[in-house]
Amino acid sequence: MDKPVISVKDVSMLFNLSRDKTMGIKEYVVKALKRQLFYDEFWALRDINFEVKRGEVVGILGLNGSGKSTLLKLIAGVFKPTKGSIEVNGAISPLLELGAGFDPEFSARENVFMNGAMFGYAPSYMKTLYKDIMDFAELWEFEDVPMKNFSSGMYARLGFAVATQVEPDILIVDEILGVGDHLFTKKCEDRIKKMLEGGTTVLLVSHNIDTIKEMCSRAVLLSKGKVVQVGAVEEICKIYQGDDA
Question: Where are the alpha helices (DSSP H) in 47-144?
């Protein structure tokens, strides 16, 4: 039996939320020294359990605030769980937030190489991928333009192109397919399908039920930080749409 690519066991995540707003670092330091900072505990996730096999596309569904993005960040290694364990077997390319890993002051060309370095790839390797990345993103005329002048769609195009061109074992996509036009979204979906043929595993968060149904074989439904159910995508989508009504 194949070992799971992702194994999430009894995972919980606690955040401490400040009760008071502080106006700048100075006020924060003063309050901290006087022990006048007070926090409320917030469990973003509670007792999460599921596994993902190699080559699966698993959708993560839930209303806003259900813990979807927190879960993806835990799997990507951005956060460490307060309780429980996460085992990941393979290299991850995470597309978690629009513009994550890009410096708006630098050009698209410079950001491609910086983003590649974040994934652990040498400039010489990224140079061999550069043409294919820019071809996919369709941003040649903007390659030397600072990314602070880019639209959200252009950010998404470049981010997706870099993350998928490096051929990761696991691709994590958090809503990024929802910011481009429909032609680019279709292009991204086709790229993901091609990656699946090569054995890539995909975790996908999207509010677009049609995208989840088309792309995913299984789904995880979250509500208020807990797993409601894990199962076949059609079944989970029916439950989610019932909750969403």
Answer: 68-76, 108-118, 123-137
Q: Which amino acid is at 165?
A: Q
How far apart CA 53 and CA 105 sit, in angstroms, is 39
Indicate the SS3 state at residue 154: helix
Which residues lie below 8 Å from residue 20, measured CB to CB, with a gap of 6+?
31, 37, 38
Q: Could you report the per-residue pLDDT of 65-95, keeping only the tens digit for each?
A: 899 989 999 999 989 999 999 999 998 888 7
144: left (phi over 0), alpha (psi -120 to 50) or beta: alpha
DSSP secondary-structure letter at 140?
Answer: G
The pLDDT tens digits for 136-179 are 999 999 999 999 999 988 988 898 898 888 878 999 988 766 66
Report how far residue 15's alpha carbon sits from residue 167's, in angstroms, rounded to the nearest whole number.
Answer: 33
Choose among 204, 113, 213, 219: nearest CA to 166: 113
Both structure tokens of 48: 């999460």
List, in order, residues 6 or more apart from 109 with CB less than 8 Å away: 130, 143, 144
What kind of fold does domain 6-244 have according to CATH?
Answer: Rossmann fold (3.40.50)
Cβ pair 177, 190 in contact under 8 A: no
Domain map (residue ranges) of the chain: 6-244
CA distance 120 to 180: 27
128 C-beta neighbours (distance < 10 Å), count: 10
Residue with tokens 């199962």: 231
